[in-house]
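Audit log entry. Action: structure prediction of a protein-small molecule complex. Ligand: zinc ion. The ligand was supplied as SMILES and no pocket hint was given, so placement is left entirely to the predictor. Protonation state taken as written. Sequence taken verbatim from the request; no trimming, no tag removal. Recorded inputs:
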Amino acid sequence: MESKPKRKDRFSYKIELHVHLDGAIRPQTVLELARKRGQHLETSNVEDLKADIVLTKPSSLRKLLHSFKVFMPVVAGDRDAVKRIAYEFCEDCAKENIRYVEVRYSPHFLSNTQPMSEFDIAPGDFSPRDVVETVNESLKQGQKDFDIKVNSILCCITHRPEWSLEVAQLCKEYKADGVVAIDIAGEDFEPGKDPKECLHKQAFTEAYKSGIHRTVHAGECGPSAGVKEALDHMYAERIGHGYHVLEDPELYERVLRDKIHLETCPISSIRTKACPEDIKKHPLLKFVKDACNYSINTDDPIILDNNLTDDYETALDMGLTEDQVITGIFNAARSSFASAEDKKQILSDLVRVYGPH
Ligand SMILES: [Zn+2]
């Protein structure tokens, strides 16, 4: 795989609302951690590792999730590894001129106290709570060293409803440490699919009652009904992806009217086949045309080999103007889960950089 030519960055102040910490690890770090921890990997250099895990062509959400199986055992359950990826994440954001970011992860997937059939992780005593504390500590240091603002979002996992109440509890406990919201990730949230989905709803209700913000992965590869469910029963303020909302005109009207924020991820959506390969037919174009509340995000850089500049450029290739990309950045600021004080600061910074939008 050839390394990409460096593109000129036209956007000096970026905001990212939808990126997974465990999907944003440097490939080099995976190799170094594997060596350090004595973990066996099929590959020993970055190019081969990338060839193994990067989705270069339109594939599927399932394939994307499969890539996690390669590197999660190298990171999960290890305090130093979690510490390192959170710190490097801040450094990588700063390099991309991302000045405010909300990074999300499943505390359970990075722990080793959960019996997990998903990943081959040796059991130990690094709990989901330890994961959250370790990530918080590292993000705090990273923010200081790289002069950026970072908040975090804790993810429930669609097929693991038994973890959800603990996720809500951790959100409540670590609210003062930059944990701003709850999310649900995994294969698209589809109502009625899981008999225990009421536990997810309970967790989101608990978050709502406790002043924890809510975002839900929905309408990505799954149908618009997932978006409706998120809005009707999970108090969702933002939707992760949401492309398939267009299948239900009434629901789409509601999203427009209520200014529900859609965290779009252009490159991810094409590689997972959530959206058509023909970028001129991408739902983002309709969202922009209809003055929907959209933002542009990366999702999983280690698997997509992208950064936020690439996603902005992809949006431009679709036909968005620079101004429409900037509108997405302002939308992200307004719909972020930052404190009122931080939001005011971010918006005034944005006006200084781009002019009012
Ligand atoms: Zn996602």
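Audit: result stored. The pocket of zinc ion is lined by residues 18, 20, 185, 217, 240, 299 (CB under 6 Å). Strands lie at 14-20, 98-105, 149-157, 179-185, 213-218, 238-241, 261-264, 294-296.
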